[in-house]
Amino acid sequence: MRKFWSCVCAVGSLAGPAALNAATATGGVRVEAAGAERMAPGDTCVAATHEVGSLPYNLPANTTVAAVDDYDLPADLEAPTCTASTSCTGSGPGPSLPRGGVFAGTGTGPDRAYRIRTDQNCDLTITLDPTAAEDLALIVYQGSCSSSLGDCACVDDSDVGGAVESVVLSAVAGVDYFVVVDGYSSGAVPPGPSGPFTLSIAGSGCELVGLAPDIAVEPASLSSTQPPDTQEAVQFDIDNVGGGTLSWSTQESPGGAPESTERRAAGGCGTDVPWLSVDPVAGTTPAGESSTVTVTLDSTGLATGLYEASVCVASDDPDEALVVVEVALTVDTMPFLDGFESGDTTRWSSAAGSS
Known about the structure:
mainly beta; Immunoglobulin-like; Jelly Rolls; 6-stranded mixed β-sheet; 6-stranded antiparallel β-sheet; about 35% strand; rod-shaped
């Protein structure tokens, strides 16, 4: 009796980018509708997540009560005060301008941190309004937060309880800044004052954005060799190696490379392939996670031979909006050789009339 062998193979891989994609490097992308994402501030800068939305951007009322005093800048009223590379205008005595003066006692209170980044270079006016009598301070850090003047971009600490504090930051697209609501203690000894506040960000010509999603698909091609009238399932993974949530969808396309490449260039994805099905056809993948897509190949009614197609994966990755997985199905009646085969042969089929 003759028997036939069925093989399912996955070939090759498409490596994900090693670094943040180009859109992230130049400012990322908006991942939510305007004003839709209002993130809770972090008690530290590391814990803070990107605020995302259009300007003006008004954050919900918050408080530094029960927060921790994480950052205490050294007193500095002479030029230079804060020395981060981005231009930023605060307030204070003449020698401390334009960055603003750091008084003995500035930053001694519990603090809250907000993370912001813009999609374009622009000037942002950041305003802190204490809603009670506490003397709060506004500090902007670039890149990371610490008690070092090298990370500080500017300060506004008016030394008046309940007074509004405001700075103007010349934001550079794609750079992370941290807006820290802190406090001033005349005794210069932590913990300083804490209390409720509101925070707002105004500007034009830019938006607040988060990190961009970044797609990686592996493997880059799928293949199956199987007898007629059978079904086999093969899989590929969609990884989000960037930030934010990756939204993706799939479409079928007849023909393998180079035909599928030409068809894709002409916008030809979306033609049904009768012997191929995809599940799921669309989905979302959070940052750092992976989604598995199953491709079922059905040789029912097909003559022996090679069949080629593609699965087009479209996504909101800003610099790689379309990734294609090539699919090859070989329909063959491969003989069981000599009876010495081992392992699982339950998926092998037999041909009538053989001995």
